[in-house]
Write a structure and sequence with these properties.
By secondary structure, the protein is an alpha/beta fold. Helix content is 21%, strand content 32%. The protein is built from 7 helices and 21 strands. It has helices at residues 123-137, 155-169, 212-215, 219-228, 263-268, 296-305, 319-333, and strands spanning 2-7, 12-14, 18-26, 31-38, 41-42, 61-69, 73-83, 88-97, 104-110, 145-149, 175-181, 184-188, 198-202, 217-218, 233-239, 274-278, 288-289, 294-295, 316-318, 341-343, 351-354. The strands form 6 sheets. It has a 6-stranded mixed beta sheet with strand order 10-9-11-15-16-20, with helices on both faces. A 5-stranded mixed beta sheet has the order 2-8-7-4-5, with no helix packed on it. A hairpin with a 2-residue loop joins strand 4 (31-38) and strand 5 (41-42). Helix 1 (123-137) runs parallel beside helix 6 and helix 6 (296-305) packs across helix 7. The chain starts with a strand and ends with a strand.
């Protein structure tokens, strides 16, 4: 028989509690037996559902698609196939199930009580929920996560935490997650590189809508901070909006109500290993709902990261899986009026959630 294994690769190290075994075995005269072993234990017919050969049938080709549970440490997967002449082929590979990595740094910001701007209801609840997901659900050490709520989230604190503390701690191989729930805003700027004549801002505690330049964090500076951080795996999640429309997490500046370009998101995602996920597209509103007690986007993001977004059931929820989940649930919950946006790519898996 001829046996080809597509995945997993020999020597793979993963935090996932299982891996997908994929391959094919074929023989011109027919196959009479196929067995799969994990750490010298043969999978039972129930565990190996879909890859058993019925007695008296001798298929010439058989696809192997099997989810294999892993024990902590090295795991040996062995595949053994026998043809009708009694000839056999056997292949073994090793997969290492490693402990959850702790080289993750995060900044979580939530602001409700703006002193000079219309307050929000649930940005702090959103930030606390996301913080709990990281520390309790993903078991990220609490000392690795900076939580800034309301008056803690001043412009100086944001710059210091992002541009100095995280910059100094996060290495190239580490992962950084930055979460912001609060107001966004725009103001006219003919020098804007986005083609819409507008600069976009995140509004910290104490932001003055009449002087955004001095009191808020422009996206061009956010992009600069991201470039200062050495990590090649950075995820920025923003539950804010910028259109100036009423009813959402945005502030209307007099005379500014234009068609926004989303090129500023591409600016943020520029460079190696950066992914940006925003609660809504550039001209939409990021809404809060009393019945959820949260912003709609964060509610479904956290819900998905606790398990439902794990579409391949490997125990790890990637950025792409999380985005697919909110891309379906958020528009459904808002009558198709809010559509999350993702920009940027990262080589390999970028894990945001771990299912217990």
């Amino acid at each position: 028989p001829v046996l080809l294994i597509a995945e997993p690769t020999h020597g793979l190290s993963t935090e996932a509690k299982s891996v997908q075994l994929s391959g094919v075995v074929q023989d011109e005269k027919g196959l009479q037996q196929l067995d799969i072993y994990i750490n010298n234990r043969k999978l039972s017919p129930l565990e190996a559902r879909g890859i058993r050969i019925a007695e008296g049938s001798y298929p010439r080709r058989l696809a192997i698609e099997q989810r294999i549970g892993l024990a902590r440490g090295p795991n040996t997967i062995k595949i053994h196939a026998v043809d009708t002449d009694g000839l056999f082929v056997e292949k073994s590979l090793t997969v290492h199930h490693i402990a959850r990595r702790r080289n993750l740094w995060a900044v979580v910001v939530g602001i409700d009580n703006y002193p000079h701007i219309r307050p929000l209801k649930y940005a702090v609840a959103d930030a606390k929920s996301f913080y709990d997901l990281l520390v309790t659900g993903n078991q990220v050490p609490a000392e690795n996560v900076h939580l800034l709520l309301n008056e803690q989230a001043t412009l100086q604190a944001l710059r210091s935490t992002l541009g100095t503390k995280v910059k100094n701690k996060a290495g190239a191989d580490d992962m950084v997650i930055i979460y912001f729930a609060g107001h966004g805003a725009t103001e006219r700027d003919t020098m804007s590189p986005d083609g819409d004549g507008l600069e976009k801002y995140l509004l910290p505690f104490g932001a003055d809508p009449n002087d955004l330049y001095a009191s808020a964090l422009p996206m061009r500076e956010v992009a600069h901070i991201f470039h200062r951080i050495r990590s090649e795996r950075l995820v920025f999640v923003a539950d804010a909006c910028y259109s100036g429309a009423s009813g959402g997490r945005t502030v209307s500046i007099t005379g500014v109500r234009a068609n926004l370009s989303d090129r500023f998101l591409e600016r943020l995602a520029g460079g190696k290993g950066k992914v940006i996920i925003t609660a809504s597209s550039a001209n939409e509103v990021s809404v809060e709902k009393d019945e959820l007690g949260h912003g709609v986007f964060t509610y479904y993001l956290v819900q998905g990261l606790r398990g439902p977004a794990d579409t391949d059931a490997d125990g790890l929820i990637t950025v792409d899986e999380a985005y697919r989940y909110v891309s379906k649930t958020v528009p459904q919950a808002t009558g198709q009026e809010q559509h999350p946006v993702k920009k940027g790519t990262v080589e390999g898996q970028l894990v945001m959630g771990i299912v217990p």
